[in-house]
Amino acid sequence: MTAKRNRRKQTQPLQQRLTSFAEAARERARRMPPGKERDMLLRRAKQNEVTSDLTDLLSAPGYRRHGG
């Protein structure tokens, strides 16, 4: 038996969701003492910012994919 996927309609674009998560994670990390949990929050915030930037780059009108 296959599992049913939990689908939901996104109300915000991907870049906006990534950016807002990164901002919220950085704000939470500012209030935390130094440690592993704080470092993980900052790492995820950075990953979301890079993902947002790459998505912008790849969806730019001048971007052309190279390869076969």
Compact overview of the structure:
The chain is 59% helix and 0% strand.
Descriptive report:
This protein has 68 residues and is an all-alpha fold. The chain has a domain of 45 residues. Helices cover 59% and strands 0% of the residues. It is built from two helices and no strands. Helix 1 packs antiparallel against helix 2. The protein is extended and about 45 Å long. The N and C termini lie far apart (38 Å). The model has no long low-confidence stretch (mean pLDDT 89).
Question: Biggest β-sheet, characterized?
Answer: none
Q: What is the CA-atom radius of gyration, in angstroms?
A: 17 Å
Q: Average pLDDT, to the nearest integer? A: 89
Number of distinct helices: 2
Share of residues in strands: under 5%
Protein structure class:
mainly alpha
Report the span from N to C terminus. Answer: 38 Å
Shape: extended
Order of helices and strands: HH
Helix content: 55-70%
- Please provide the count of β strands: 0
How would you describe this structure in keywords?
mainly alpha; 59% helix; 68 residues; 0% strand
Strand-helix topology:
Blueprint: H1 14-30, H2 36-58
Helix pairs in contact: 1-2
